[in-house]
Amino acid sequence: MTAILIFEQLLNGLQFGMMLFLMSAGLTLVFGVMGLINLAHGVLYMVGAFACAIIAGLTGSFWLGLLASLVAAAMAGALVEVGVIRKLYQRDHLDQVLATYALILIFSGATRWLFGAFPLYLDVPEILSAPVNLFGLLDYSSYRLFIIAVGITVALGLYFLIAKTRLGMRIRAGESDREMIAALGVDIRTLYTLVFALGAALAGLAGALLGALQSVEVGMGDSVLILAFVVIVIGGIGSIKGAFIGALLVGLVDTMGRFLLPYLFALVLPPDTAASIGGALSSVAIYILMAVILIVKPKGLIAANG
Amino acid sequence: MANLTIEYKLNVFLVMLLVALPAIALILDEPFYITLATKVVILALAGVGLNLALGLGGLISFGHAAFFGIGGYVAGILASHSLNAELMFTLAEIEFQGSTNMLVIWPLALLVSALVALIIGYFSLRTKGVYFIMITLAFAQMIYYFAIAWPAYGGEDGLSIYVRNQFMGLNTLDPINFYGICFGLLMATLFLLSRLKNSHFGAALQAARQNEQRLAAVGIRPFGIKLTAFVISAMITALAGALFADLNRFVSPDMFSWHTSGEIMIFVILGGVGRLFGPVVGAGLFIVFEYYLGGLTEHWALFLGLVLLAVVLFARGGLVGLIAGEVKHD
């Protein structure tokens, strides 16, 4: 085990964290602004991945596929918001859980019906398929670096949008007092649809980006959804900054845990046992992290709205 | 009061239905329907457990799969040791044997789940709302991954129980006998819960859900009340888990997965949160739909989703709420 290997794993963790950030940004915004628990967020991730795989397959261009993933997920998001989600804002969390769980079944069922149960494959675009040499030390996947760059760009873009624009001001106002902002004449319904579609587009983007690293299949959003919830809970629900920190923490802890724990246990235990215990503990690491953070700070690291 | 009588009539009808269905299946010589009914009764029991925490106490636990799985694994582990004639472990020179006796398995499942629930609840109840949902999920996920990685009892592949466990000399492999056991436990639990709901404890628990400050102001610490409810709720779900292991004669880490937690929660919400027979209606409808739609089309999940969505949007308060109306004195 060398420093270079650790550096490579750190980059992997960073890339995983960025993907998680794209997923959690929308989830935390929707919760913060509309007070909605959206289990169907993982479905939008799947929609993005499918749109990208299909368009890229038809046109041969990954970039058109990426664009399609944004458009398809945003449209699916807007459609779902207007058709179903809008009726749930005044309901309690349990109704939201049941309704969005039903949406998962509907979207997964429909996708399986349309595209079959076999996974689709999405290739990394040619320009990003070759590894790049970093500092003369190691060859690293340029595609993973691209995901990191996209994540950082989106984070900066969201910061600018929320902190500096009129729309962002309305979003923040909607978070702190929805009656007041409606009374001031802001069309809150359209604002909600916009926020939901924005979060959906980011989830779709995450799905498309990751679709090239994994297979594109029904149910691919399920495990990511749970991780995204872990992220926003660690960061503090409603806070984009919290989601960013949470995503990095989860990405790094998970990746480094999987990498380091088996090594560490191998120092004191026989190899077989070390591999299985290390493996188990590394799967659990992020949940232990989350439980400890919530026990110490019951509202997450960065509580939104003071 | 008129609405309450409708709910009362509905409950009586449901009990009669649960008695009549297996009898009809027996007459028609369709033992599979008895097994299906057994599955409904067991999953309803799991939901009844969650309903105590969720419905009466407002504690939205997304981690009840942990207790369901613990019940299952207690049954599985005891049975496997007994069938292989191995010792479980030796503690202070007392030898602990496995067992295939349900009357040994159940108390042990209740005990283990109570201890685990005490720990999980103690830490989780410091948080509220969505944070509580997520921290209970986190604990369940820890146990899930532990079960996958623990090689002694099958790890990811799970553990088979070759013979159904024993109950007072009954032939438990006969579907109708096993159904009787599960039905009896469900009825006993529902009876106890109906008493509990109207007891001092039940009143305090509902007060804790509605307004903690007021409860504290009359001199009752909400934390202890909620923790007690969480533990009892976990024990009931664990009992269901032990029965579920016996039904399938198989346990696997899937029992601990968040999908299981989600499904148990769906039974409760679908039937009607806080309604005594809500989980029975919810589990019944879910399983029946899953079975019939699964027979009609391979895309059953899509239609199940549409049904669930329709229930949330148009039947507030779940199905029991739809039939019996809202609880007026709440």
Can you offer a commentary on this structure?
The complex is a heterodimer of chains A (306) and B (330). Chain A has helices at 3-34, 41-59, 62-83, 93-115, 142-164, 166-176, 178-183, 188-211, 220-235, 240-268, 271-296, and strands spanning 131-134, 138-141. Chain A is an all-alpha fold and 306 residues long. Chain A has a two-stranded antiparallel ribbon. In chain A, strand 1 and strand 2 (138-141) form a beta hairpin. The longest helix of chain A is centred in the first third of the chain and has 32 residues, at 3-34. Chain A starts with a helix and ends in a 10-residue tail after the last helix. The mean pLDDT of chain A is 86. By secondary structure, chain B is mainly alpha-helical. Chain B has one domain: Orthogonal Bundle (ABC transporter involved in vitamin B12 uptake, BtuC), CATH 1.10.3470. Chain B has helices at 2-27, 31-56, 65-83, 102-124, 129-149, 175-197, 200-210, 212-217, 222-248, 258-271, 278-296, 300-314, 318-324; strands at residues 87-91, 94-97, 159-160, 250-251. In chain B, helix 11 runs antiparallel to helix 12 (300-314). Chain A binds chain B through residues 31, 37, 84, 87-88, 91, 93-95, 97-99, 101-110, 112-113, 226, 229-230, 233, 237, 276-277, 279-281, 283-284, 287-288, 290-291, 294-295, 298-300, and chain B through 54, 60, 123, 126-131, 133-135, 137-139, 141-142, 145-146, 148-151, 258, 262, 265-266, 269-270, 273, 299-309, 311-313, 316.
